[in-house]
Each structure stands twice: as C-alpha cells, then as structure tokens.
Write a structure and sequence with these properties.
Elements: H1 2-14, H2 20-23, H3 52-62, H4 68-88, H5 92-97, H6 99-108, H7 127-142, H8 153-158, H9 160-173, H10 183-201, H11 205-209, H12 212-218, E1 226-231, H13 240-243, H14 265-269, E2 275-279, E3 288-289
Antiparallel strand pairs: 1-2, 1-3
C-alpha cells in the first residue's frame, strides 16, 4: 500500500500544472527545463517537467546542426541526470515513481485473463535494447526530415504515454485539433491499444519488454548506491520470494537484475530476512551478496 501512495503522489508531482484548466495550453515555465524521472510526456497539458527520453533525443538531433560549444551544457545535464537517478535509485523509479508504471499497475488489477507472455527465441530479452538503440539513439542521430532536422522517433511514433497524455488529453481540451490528426496518430493509437491489452494480460508488459527508460535505469541496478543484497547464510532456498516477484525473476539469484523494478515484495515476504535493502559502501566488507 505504501508503494501505491508513492506512485500516486509522484504522478501528481509529474503532472502538477493546473493552469491548463484555464488556458488549455501546456506549461512552458522554468521547470520544463528539468526532467522528471518517470516516463511522462513533455507535451501533456498538466506536465511540469520534460521527459528524459525526449531530452536525450533532442540532444542527439542537435548534434547535426549546432556547434559543440552550444551543446556542452546539455551534454553534462543529460549525463548528470542519468548518473544521479541511475546510481541513487535505478529502477526504484520504475516501481515507485513512474506515472506510466503506475497506470500499468492499475490496468493489471482489472479482472481479466492473465498470462506470462513469452516471445519466440526469447526476443523479449532484446526488445528494450532494440527500442533504445534504434528509436532513441540511432534514428534521431542519423535520419533527418525534408527540412534537414531530425525526428524524435520514439516520442513521435512509439511512446504510449505520449499518446495518452499529449494526444488524447490535448484532443479532449481542444477538439478542433481533431481535424489535424493523420496516419501517425492512428498508428500510435494502435500501438497504445496493443500495449494496454498486453499490460492487462501480463503485469508491466511495457516495462519488462519495451521501455527504453527502464532499461537505462536497470543498467544501474547492480552498481547503484541503493540496492538489494542477499545474506546467503540466512537463505533457506524456500523460493517464496520468487513466487511473489511480479516480473518473474529467478530469485534470490536475480535480485539486482536489469528487470527488477524494486517493488520490494521479495524483501517483505522473506521469512528469514535474507534479502535486505542497503546503501552500498564500497569501503566496507559485507556478508551480503549483491
């Protein structure tokens, strides 16, 4: 229950601009220069912050057209953002702070057919890397449009959070925009519907299989300052922790896997308290396995 409250509060922090109720416009103030840690669309009328993936794509686009002197500040901001949130929180952001992750949790609670979805050849292990490498990095960096500028490929063609928050929310506020929609909107609507159906069937399908932002944070799970540890002498291999893992990890061996969203179910259920949350101190000798 505590995690749900964190998720709810974080969703309202990410989307705390109420001025749109008066003018139907998105917020463009100082906070939009900063990134919120979760997957939350920059163009949502209620959004106070920029999206980390959007900022990263914009930076890669700008490399082609701006001198390095104009980019150095953005480079260090983006690097510092991911290092700070990655090292301090990792995928705690996914489990406790991400608005779109919270939406997936709520959708999965709807009574419906539930099943663990597996793809042929275990391609689910690679999909997030494909989306990150191609749609977030390579395509914005190398492909330009007819006016010589790059495209935010993931934001424009894929992101389901953007479809809900920027697409449908803006249409609701300004129905006149309906006459401007075209193929891209229908494509993203199709992707959104498929993702939501799969999230209804399989817990956090988007987080586990598609989300590039979750992958970036997950890369820090093993090296972050705040991480899970296993006290091997306390573990009796009962596998209770594995049974309550919502992302189906092989526990306790994979407590710091890239896929772990840090829900802490394993820590709370462990009968022998073999799993604990600790602040990593490299200068101390520990009996825990990280």
């Amino acid at each position: 229950m505590k995690r749900k409250w964190f998720q709810l509060v974080s969703t309202f922090v990410h989307n705390g601009y109420v001025g749109f109720l008066a003018n139907s416009n998105i917020y463009t103030g100082f906070l939009k220069n900063l990134c919120g840690p979760g997957l939350n669309c920059h163009s949502c009328p209620a959004s106070l912050f920029a999206c980390p993936l959007g900022i990263l794509q914009n930076f890669l686009i700008s490399i082609r057209i701006l001198p390095w002197q104009a980019l150095i500040g953005s480079f260090f901001y983006i690097l510092g953002f991911f290092l700070f949130f990655g090292l301090f929180l990792g995928r705690f952001i996914c489990g406790w702070l991400c608005p779109f992750g919270f939406l997936q949790d709520l959708i999965y609670k709807i009574p419906f057919f539930k099943k663990q979805i597996k793809f042929p050849l275990h391609i689910e292990n690679y999909l997030k890397f494909i989306f990150l490498i191609f749609f977030v990095i390579l395509l914005p960096l190398f492909i330009i449009n007819e006016i010589g500028y790059g495209i935010l490929w993931f934001c424009k063609y894929i992101c389901p959070a953007g479809t809900i928050e920027a697409g449908y929310f803006n249409l609701f506020l300004q129905p006149s925009l309906f006459f401007l929609i075209g193929f891209v909107f229908y494509l993203k609507t199709f992707i959104l519907v498929i993702v939501l159906i799969l999230c209804l069937i399989n817990f956090r399908f988007f987080c586990k299989n598609l989300c590039p932002l979750g992958l970036i944070y997950g890369l820090f799970n093993k090296i972050g300052i705040l991480r899970l540890s296993l006290i091997k002498n306390n573990c009796n291999s009962c596998k209770v922790c594995e049974k309550v893992c919502p992302v189906n990890l092989s526990l306790p061996e994979e407590i710091n896997s890239i896929e772990c969203i840090r829900c802490l179910n394993c820590l709370k259920i462990c009968p022998t308290k073999a799993i604990k949350l600790e602040i990593y101190k490299p200068y101390e000798i520990s009996d825990c396995q990280t």
